[in-house]
Specification:
Order of helices and strands: HHHHHHHHHHHHHHHHH
Number of strands: 0
Strand content: under 5%
Number of domains: 1
Number of helices: 17
Distance between the termini: 34 Å
Radius of gyration: 22 Å
Helix content: over 70%
């Protein structure tokens, strides 16, 4: 267990964000590795994997319900030095993870075909997508249990152990992907199905290692004498987590809407958008990691009654985001075509992808503000403002985008410009809501010092 209620707030955030950045990059590499090797199979195969991988947003949204709710409840217990309560919540998180895994195993196969027909008009792409997802869905389902274990460790301030395990799994995926996709060594090439199987086998290996660590190495958390499912705790986790999960569901809805709107532009446009979006997500991970480190920092300090450190951490995180996102923005502006070139030599794919990266990277500054505010809402156990912010952004993008698609002015370039403007408005709205949340928290705790130190 790492105490996040003492010492420099900058040092505490960085100590959580750096290993979390590595861990999240490792997770993103699952898809990037698949894209790299699948790109050699052709544009249709690349379009199939990127459109199928968008289902990851749906699974991330569902797992975030568990992750955010569990961290929001466990971190204050850890900060209050109450290991019995922290472990009670941990056990319920594991039960919820098992329920989520079982649910996706049962329902997942029925969701695939309707989704694929909605985002692609190419029968070849749909067929390849089905082959990929048949092998990737089991890995997605097992993410629920993995997330429960990782979230519990995050609440205790332990992010380094999970980072090391995730690093091992991506190395395994890098080894397995070319073997299964291209038939290296085996002589049996599975194509896109091999990409899905490689990812699933890597997820299984990661889950086994996480369980081994918690059972054999972890001192604060334990799985001994597992308590029975407590549906009252489940409701508390879901009440906090559902709005945060809905935020990620907005990301799935955004991507799905874009795929629907651009499907008549052809598989090259879809491949360029998909590859570009995955690259932007990978490049912006340091900023995302800063935000994801905040709920544990805020939660532990809330449980310890250190409200002054909550505002200090929020201000520090905003400053760090502006610096980090500014540097990442420059990376995307320098040579976006070179970045897309890692995944496709097709001129149309590179053109579509590089234009997307160059425009969407203007989102980075506003996204840093949105992510930091979301981390604050999660850490203080009130995720409804974050959901309101995400819904606002989706509406600001969807309504003009759908209208534009019916006009002669509709183009990919203009679609990305609408996205940038929607995120800027979202950032302003999120910051206003965050200031109100800090004021409310200070009043409830009777802390005038908190109110006086709010960022302007």
């Amino acid at each position: 267990m790492k105490d996040l209620t003492q010492g420099s707030v900058y040092r505490q955030i960085i100590s959580q964000a750096v290993p979390m950045t590595i861990g999240m990059l490792v997770q993103t590499l699952y898809i990037l590795v698949d894209l790299y090797f699948v790109a050699g199979l052709g544009t249709d195969a690349l379009a199939a994997v990127v459109s199928s991988a968008n289902l990851m947003f749906l699974v991330i949204a569902l797992t975030q319900v568990l992750s955010v709710g569990l961290v929001a409840l466990m971190a204050p217990a850890v900060g209050a030095k109450n290991p019995a309560e922290a472990n009670r919540l941990f056990h319920q998180g594991v039960w919820l993870g098992l329920a989520g895994t079982a649910g996706l195993f049962l329902l997942g196969p029925f969701l695939v075909e309707p989704y694929l027909h909605s985002v692609s008009s190419s029968e070849a792409v749909i067929l390849l997508s089905q082959q990929y997802l048949n092998w990737f869905l089991p890995g997605l389902a097992l993410q629920f249990v993995s997330v429960a274990l990782v979230a519990a460790l995050r609440a205790t301030g332990n992010v380094q152990s999970t980072m090391k395990i995730q690093l091992l799994t991506v190395v395994l995926n890098i080894v397995l992907a070319p073997v299964l996709i291209n038939g290296w060594l085996t002589g049996y090439a599975m194509g896109v199905a091999g990409a899905g199987l490689a990812s699933t086998l890597s997820v299984i290996a990661g889950l086994v290692l996480l369980l081994f660590y918690v059972i054999k190495q972890e001192l604060y958390l334990h799985l001994r004498q597992m308590q029975k499912p407590d549906f009252k705790v489940w409701r508390r986790v879901l009440a906090i987590g559902c709005p945060a999960g809905a935020e990620f569901l907005m990301m799935f809805a955004f991507s799905a809407l874009v795929y629907i709107l651009i499907k008549d532009f052809g598989s090259a446009a879809q491949a360029g958008f998909g590859a570009g979006m995955r690259l932007v997500q990978a490049i912006s991970l340091p900023g995302v990691a800063i935000a994801f480190s905040l709920p544990a920092v805020f939660g532990q300090n809330l449980g310890a009654g250190r409200l002054d450190r909550i505002t200090a951490s929020f201000s520090a995180a905003l400053k760090m985001q502006l610096v980090v996102m500014g540097l990442l923005f420059l990376v995307c502006q320098l040579n976006p075509a070179w970045l897309i070139g890692f995944f496709s030599a097709d001129a149309d794919v590179r053109s579509a992808g590089s234009d997307f990266i160059q425009i969407i990277s203007w989102n980075f500054f506003a996204s840093g503000v949105v992510l930091t505010c979301s981390g604050l809402f999660q850490g203080l156990g009130n995720t409804l403002p974050g959901l309101a912010s995400s819904v606002t952004r989706l509406l600001l993008f969807a309504l003009p985008a759908v209208w534009l698609s019916q006009t002669t002015a509709f183009s990919l370039h203009n679609l990305w410009l609408i996205s940038v403007l929607s995120v800027v408005v979202q950032a302003v709205f999120s910051f206003v809501l965050a200031k109100r949340q800090l004021i409310k928290t200070g009043r409830l705790a009777g802390s005038p010092e908190l109110n006086e130190s709010l960022p302007s």
